[in-house]
Every structure is written in C-alpha cells, then in structure tokens.
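If you are new to this repository, start here. Below is one unmodified record pulled from the training split, so you can see the exact layout before writing a loader.
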Amino acid sequence: MTEWTGVAGKRVVMTGATNGIGLAAAQELAELGAELTIVARSQERAAVALERIRDSPAPEVAIADLSSQAEVRRLAAELLDRYERIDVLVNNAGAMFRTRRHTVDGIEETWAVNHLAPFLLTNLLLDRMKQHPPARIVTTASDAHQKAHIPFDNLAGEGPWKARGFARYGETKLANILFTAELARRLEGSGVTANCYHPGLVATGFNHNNGRLMNLAMAAIKPFSRTPEKGAETLVWLADSPDVSGENGGYFVDKRRTLPSPQARDMEVARRLWDLSRRQTSDPRAEATTGQA
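And here is the target side for that same chain:
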C-alpha cells in the first residue's frame, strides 16, 4: 500500500459542498489539486458553487436529494459507474428543521439526512474505496452531541418539536461520531480510515431556513462565530494531510484529536446503532462490511 501524499490528483467526493463550511472546504480542496466531485441537491445550488470555485479546476457535479434512500442508492450507483477509484469521501451534508418533517421513506428528516444518508452512502461506496487504499472517510459532527443520547425508544422524535428540534440535531451529531467509531473498528487493516470533526461555531447559511426567530438568533451569534474558511480547516486537514495517516476513529477539534462525550465513546451503543441503521436502510452491503463484528 502506498503512502498518503495528499489529495492532489485524488478523487474526492463531498456532500454538502454548496454552502458554508462545505463550499469553503471544496474551494480549498480544489486549490490543493483534488479531483473533486460535489454532491448538490439541485443544479441551481451546484451552479452557485461552481461559480465560487471557478478559479480552481472545476469540480464535477452529482445531483441527489439525500433525504431519499432511493436517491442515495442512485447517487452511489452513479459514482461507482463514473469512477474506478474514490480516494476520499466527505460526509458534510446536514440540516436542522423548525418543524417535524418526514421523508418519502417515512423517516424523520433530520435523522434521515444527517445520519442515515451518510451511513448508507458510505457503505455503498466502501468496497470501491477498499480496492484502492489508502483512502479516507471524513464526517462532519458537532459539539452539539455533548448532552445527547441515541433515542432508541423514540426514533421518530415524538414530542413537542419546539423542545425537540435542536435536541434532535444533537442526537444526529452523536450518531455521526458513533458511526465513525464503529466504522473505523470494522475498517482496521483495510487501508481505509474514518474520522470525524467539530467545525466550531461558524457563521454560515445553516439554519436560516427555520423562520424569523431562528434567523434572529443566528444573527445574534454571528459576531462570536468563526468564518466558514476557519470552520473548514480541520475537514481539509483530515482529507489532505499525511500527518493523520495513522488516525482512525477519531473525533477532532481544531486539528487535535479530542475525547467526545462518554455516550459517544460507548462502543456497545455504537454497535447497537449500526445494527439499527442497517435495518433502517435495509442495505445488504452494510452487513457485508461487518468484518469482526
């Protein structure tokens, strides 16, 4: 297996790359010479991102609604058909919703987009990534996980949504960390690594689709927020730097491996979440990656 020399000349697939941290990271990765593919929800969003990245090699575009498992499967099939190798997968897409919404699969949308979509997409692409090591998987988590628990007895997120909305977001970010830890365990010795990170409080367009009060709240914290470029630094570092070649299963803050909450370090919870996610996505490929489970 060859040593990691950075993203230059490597195929990087990135979700959530049309705004905020994702767009800032996409610009940097393109400037570093990555063969970048951005996954966008629409052609319009992709066009805006391409305009911003125009001074670097133009990325390729794939369109998918990540709230739909059929769309995630179609996206994965398209990527596998396009590329003989995928060197880096960045699961950055995420959302928080003002009201409870359900997807076409009947799943609460925050859970579907923030957790099940990266779980399913990663597993569908994993065999291809294993064929050409070294390869990396980077997932955007959040410090919002700190007080969260996985609601195994309330996966639908029932309860007053005004009290549940942000808590639900925290649950999905906890799920991102647990997914990363369990995935890393299953990937040991494969040449593929999985890590996640917290970008910090970032001033982006995130959460501006949730009504006037939330817009005011986001405006109030903006003076205390970091720029998208600063928020993207750890993502780009985890994707590009040879210095993290030995890292697997880590949670990083400002380029330092950091302990997440005790709940996020509970590997029994991680295994239980993996099995649940496999059932929710009904994906046979997820079972195929169980390794030493």
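Two things worth knowing about this chain: Residues 212-224, 288-293 have pLDDT under 50 and may be disordered. The first helix runs from residue 20 to 31.
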